[in-house]
Amino acid sequence: MGQYVIGIDAGGTMTKAALFDMDGVEIACAHSRNVMQAPHPGWTERDPEEMWQAATLAVRQVIECSGVSPSDIEAVSVAGYGGGLYLMDRDGHSVRAGIMSTDARAVDIIAEWQSNGTADQVEALIGQHLWPGQTIVLLTWLVRNEPGVFDRTHSVSFCKDFLRAQLCGDMSTDLTDAGSAGLLDPETDTYCDALFDLLGLAHLRDKLPELGPSDQVVGGVTAKAAALTGLQEGTPVVRGTVDMSAAALASHITEPGQMSVVAGTFSIAATLNRTPRRSYVPMLQFPYPLGGYMAVEGSPTSASNLEWVVKTVLTQGCPLPDEGFSDIYERLNQALARRLGKPGTALFFPFLFGGPNGAPAGLLGMTAQSNFDDMAIAIFEGIVFAHKLDIDKVLSGDDAAPVDLIRLTGGATRSPYWSELFADILGLPIEVPKGSEFGALGVAICAAAAIGAYPSLADAVAGMTGIARRHTCNADRRAAHIAKFPRFVAMTNAMAAIPAAPLVAETEAFHA
Questions:
Q1: N or C: at which end does the chain have fewer Cβ atoms within 10 angstroms?
Q2: 294 burial class (0-12, 13-18, 19+ CB within 10 angstroms)?
Q3: What range(s) does the Carbohydrate kinase FGGY C-terminal domain occupy (predicted)?
C-alpha cells in the first residue's frame, strides 16, 4: 500500500506525531515537549493552546523529515492521556487552563465523599474507583470553586479531543475517554444521568460531548490547521482513543486472555473482559474499541524510578551527553544479565512518585559487602514486583478474565534481560510488540480502518501490528526471584503504616 496515516499522541511530558504506512511500519516520528504548570500546591495544569502548538510542530516536523508528500497522507487521528479536563467555547478555544490527570486539587472532595457514603454510590454507578484527576471529580471541584467558568463553556472535553477540535472543529469524544473520565454507565455505554443527579451536576449534562466510535471520520483538516501543520486541507480526521486503549490496539490486544502491560513513566496493567467488572472495582474501566470492556490498574512505580536513580544518584544529577546515559544504562543492563536468577537480599521500593497507601521509596537490605550488581538487580526486580502488585489487583475478583499472555510495551522493553525478568517473576509468556510509539500507532490503526484501508478495525489491528520477540518463564529463575516477593509486600505494607515525617523544606522533584 502506498498510503500513509499520522497518529498524534499527547502524553504527560511529550506530544508525539508519527507517520505510518498501511502495514503499520513507522516511517518517521517527531516530538515536542509539553510544559506543565503548577500555579498552586497539588495543581498540575497545561496551557491548551501551547499543547496545540506542540502538536502542530511535531506534525510539521514528521512530514518534513519523512519526505512524504502531504497529499499521500490519507488520514490523521489523536490519542491523549485519560482523565483531566479541558473546557472549550463554541469556537473550540479553551476557557481556562487544561487540568492534567495528575492533578490533586480535589483530594478533599474524595475524602468528603468517602466519609458521607457518596463515594460508594458513585463507584457503584460508574464501575471504577474515584481518583483526584478524574473528570467527574474535577467537574465537581470547578462547580464549587470556579462556577463562572461554565458560563463560557460550550463543551467539556479531554486531551485528545481538544487537539482534534483544533484540527477539524469536531468536539465529540469516544467511549474510551468518556469511560475513563468516570462519566459513563458501564451497563449502557451512555452518560450516567443518575451520577449527575447524585452530584448536583445535572446542569452540566448538555455540555457533555457527543459520543461516537474511535474509528470514525469526524471532519477534515481546516485551512488554518493545514497552514500550521503542513497537512493538506481536507485530510480526513478520525476521532481516536485514549492512550491506554491506543497502546492496547497497537499491542494486538484482541481477546480476553491477553493483558497489556506498560512499563514506562507509569505501571499500567489492562485486561480485556467481555462485560464490565463488578466483583472487583478497578482503578479505571471503559468500553474497548474492539468490543468488551478494558479494566485498568496503574501506579507511578515503573521505569521512571530507574531513570530517577540514574540521573539523580548514579550521575549525581549532572547532565550527560546521550552516550553517557547509554553507557550507564548499558552497565545496568549487563549487571542485570549477570544476575538473572541470582538475586541478592536487597529490596528496592520504586515509590519515588507515590507508593501504595503512601509507602515511601527506598533501597533496603544492603550491606558493606553489597556491590553494583546487587543494587542493579534490586532496582530492576523491585520495579517488576511493583508491576505485580497492580497486575494482581486487576486479576482479583470472580469475574476477572484469566490471562495466559502479557504484551509488554514501554521503556523496560529496551532491555531484553528486563523483559525476561518480567516473564520470570510474573510466570507468564511476555511478547514485545513491534514498534515504539504505541499510542500514535493505535490511533493510526483507527485512522486506517476509518478510511476503508481495512474492512474493519479488527482487520486493521491484524494488518498493522506484529511481535518483535517473545520471552518465556524460566522456572528455576522464577523460584529464586519470587521467593522475595512476600517480603517486598510485607515491608511495603509496614512502611505505609508508619506516618510520614513532615517536610522541612521543599525540594525540586525530577519529573520523568
A1: N
A2: buried
A3: 260-450
* The model's pTM: 0.92
| pLDDT for position 422 | 98
Q: Using CA atoms, how far apart are residues 447 and 451, in angstroms rounded to an integer?
A: 6
Burial class (CB in 10 A: 0-12, 13-18, 19+), 264: buried
Considering only the C-alpha atoms of the chain, give the largest distance between any 2 of them, rounded to a whole number of Å. Answer: 66
Query: Structurally, what CATH architecture does the domain formed by 4-252 represent?
Result: 2-Layer Sandwich (3.30)
How many helices (H) and strands (E) the chain has is answered by: 17, 23
What is d(CA 362, CA 360) in angstroms, rounded to the nearest whole number? Answer: 7
Q: List helix spans (H) across 133-222.
A: 135-145, 159-168, 175-180, 193-198
- The CB density around residue 203, as the number of other CB atoms within 10 Å, is 11
pLDDT tens digits, 343-385: 999 999 999 988 998 899 999 999 999 999 999 999 999 999 9
Task: Calculate mean pLDDT across residues 3-25.
Answer: 95
Q: Which residues pair with 7 in a beta bridge?
A: 18, 77
- pLDDT surpassing 60 at residue 135: yes
H-helix or E-strand containing 421? helix 416-426
**Domain definitions of the chain by residue range:** 4-252, 303-394+480-497
- SS3 state of residue 503: coil
